[in-house]
Amino acid sequence: MIDSGSLRVAVHVHADVGESPSWDARAAVLRFVDMSRGIVYRHDPADGSLSSCEVGQEVGAVVVREAGGIAAAVRDGIGFVDEATGALELIAPIELDLPGNRMNDAKCDPAGRLWAGTMSFDFTAGAGSLYRVLPDHSFTRVVENVTISNGLGWSPDGDRMYYTDTAAGSIDVFDFELATGEVANRRRLLDFAPGDGMPDGMAVDAEGHIWVALFGGGCIRRYTPGGLLVDRIELPVSQPTSVAFGGDGLHDLYITTATYQLTAEQLAEQPLAGATFVCRPGVTGVPVQSFGG
């Protein structure tokens, strides 16, 4: 078990559903969202400053754009966000014919394509999908029959893609063709027992190991590419949502958390629920590619 003594609060905003920590290496800042409140946060670890903007609808994830600025997976699809005003320019309207659905987690592959998933507001089984969004803003449904499309990650050499359906309690792996973005040979990598918590966001480190946030399980687990549990970080809160490497040299691991549906008693027992934490796990992350669009 990794010593949680290095764990500290980076930002505490009492997020309802803190999600999608995303490190911007060019600006040396961390972005994350409060999904249900439609807020995008920007945190500068150098001076401790924090700013935010409201985008006017639920926001599941945020990524850096290669051209500058940020893109976000919002309720209605993928959009560009003006951080000064919160103004949203929808560039890829996804599933507008399904008003009961929204976008959830999203991340860029090593070639700069954006992968983003959907789910229904009422968690209808099989209502969601996973999409591949190209820099020209065109998009293709790649995976169907998903309930809660969630964590994404790629191996350091780019030949494997990891994918989470939280409701299924599992993480799958695909063979990944970096040149084309095509996936094949989907198979199960990890299954989680009900007492483990639900697999949520993930990150991949430079050794190819997978870090998984277990919502309801109060911890982050680290697995080998073959699915062997090798480490864990215990948290003082029950609902971690996602993880991302950041900081100088990608030595820091950022962890977002939620207060979602916690009772007053649970909130009293978990005063740091909703905070974003940071620690030094002893390994570095893999640089995350910006969206080419």
Task: Kindly describe this structure.
The structure is a single chain. With 293 residues, this protein is mainly beta. The chain has one domain (4-279): Neuraminidase, CATH 2.120.10. 2% of the residues lie in helices and 52% in strands. The protein contains one helix and 24 strands. The chain has one helix spanning 264-269, and strands at residues 8-12, 18-24, 29-34, 39-44, 49-54, 59-64, 70-74, 77-81, 88-93, 101-108, 114-120, 128-133, 139-146, 149-154, 160-165, 170-177, 182-191, 198-204, 210-215, 219-223, 229-234, 240-246, 252-257, 275-279. The strands form six sheets. The chain has a four-stranded antiparallel β-sheet with strand order 1-24-23-22, with no helix packed on it. The protein has a four-stranded antiparallel β-sheet with strand order 2-3-4-5, with no helix packed on it. A hairpin with a 4-residue loop joins β15 and β16 (170-177). The longest helix has 6 residues, at 264-269. The radius of gyration is 17 Å and the shape is globular. The N and C termini lie far apart (40 Å).
